[in-house]
Write a structure and sequence with these properties.
Order of helices and strands: HHHHHHHHHHHHHHHH
Structural class: mainly alpha
Shape: globular
Number of domains: 2
Largest sheet: none
Number of helices: 16
CATH class of the largest domain: Mainly Alpha
Number of strands: 0
CATH superfamily of the largest domain: UbiA prenyltransferase
Helix content: over 70%
Length: 292
């Protein structure tokens, strides 16, 4: 029984699931500060679970779709190793979708009962559903180069806004700038990862480096990183933070602006890792001034 449960949890890919779910309370924190803990804890908790089940369903659907490929590429995954049958995986997917939509819907209901705005929460949720399905299953935008990179980055950035919407505070400028940082850094990282995987993607995906050129794509990624830096800077220029508090973003800023050398040298693995680290440092740099 325990082994079977572990297999289903492996289908969900818990590490990725929880990393994404953590972004929901961050969105609430950036929108209204610590108030969410005392006044909207249940609403935020519901949307954390909505995201957990949402991403778990998407990952399970992806494993069902790629089961034949995984027999060779990832034979130890739950489906190719026969730990979970395709039929049971499909049932599990439906269970996750029902749980996710229920959590989202009940959270929206609680907002409406309190006379708060609930529509942005629902809109962001179903926009993410469309992006996810079109990325892996419908038009398969993941095979369409930059369009796929933008789709996945929109989904990642939208979780911040989803967290803000869970406390009916979609209008928070800090949340939008933070979502911008996440979107642009993730987009740059997706392009760099495509540069890294160019040879293995040949004949499978039509990525940006294949059509735009390897070095051109790397330079575009650096331009996109500069856009992320603009979003990082704006809350200290326009508020809610003071300009002097930009100091707390020094680690993230230095890590991003010094990427031009490694990018030009084609050190894609190094660059990808540093972009992710800089994104996390940027989020921390936004959190610290909220307590000063």
């Amino acid at each position: 029984m325990a082994a079977e449960v572990r297999a289903y949890l492996e289908l969900m890919r818990l590490k990725n699931v929880f990393l994404a779910a953590i972004t929901v309370p961050l969105g609430a924190q950036f929108a209204i500060g610590d108030t969410w803990v005392s006044e909207y804890f249940v609403e935020v908790l519901l949307q954390i679970f909505a995201v957990i089940f949402f991403i778990g369903a998407g990952n399970t659907m992806n494993d069902i779709k790629d089961c034949e490929i995984d027999k060779t590429a990832h034979p130890n995954r739950p489906i190719p190793s026969n730990k979970v049958s395709i039929e049971n995986a499909k049932r599990f997917t439906w269970l996750l979708w029902i749980a996710s939509i229920t959590c989202m819907g009940y959270g929206a209901f609680r907002l409406s009962q309190g006379g708060l705005t609930w529509l942005p929460l629902v809109v962001i949720y179903f926009a993410a559903v469309i992006l996810m399905l079109s990325y892996d299953h419908g038009p398969k935008t993941k095979n369409s180069g930059l369009i796929g990179n933008i789709s996945i980055s929109l989904m990642v950035g939208a979780v911040i806004l989803y967290g803000s919407s869970s406390v009916s505070a979609i209008e928070s400028t800090l949340s939008w700038w933070t979502a911008g940082v996440v979107f642009f850094t993730n987009l740059a990282r997706e392009i760099i990862k495509d540069c890294q995987d160019m040879e293995s993607d040949e004949g499978i995906r039509n990525t940006l480096p294949m059509s735009f050129g390897l070095q051109n794509s790397r330079m575009l990624a650096y331009v996109i990183i500069m856009a992320a830096l603009v979003c990082l800077y704006m809350p200290y220029w326009k508020g809610p933070f003071e300009f002097g508090q930009l100091f707390f973003q020094t680690p993230a800023i230095l890590m991003l602006i010094t990427l031009n050398g490694p990018i030009y040298q084609g050190k894609d693995v190094l660059v990808s890792g540093r972009i992710r680290t800089a994104m996390l440092l940027g989020l921390i740099g936004f959190i610290i001034p909220m307590y000063l």
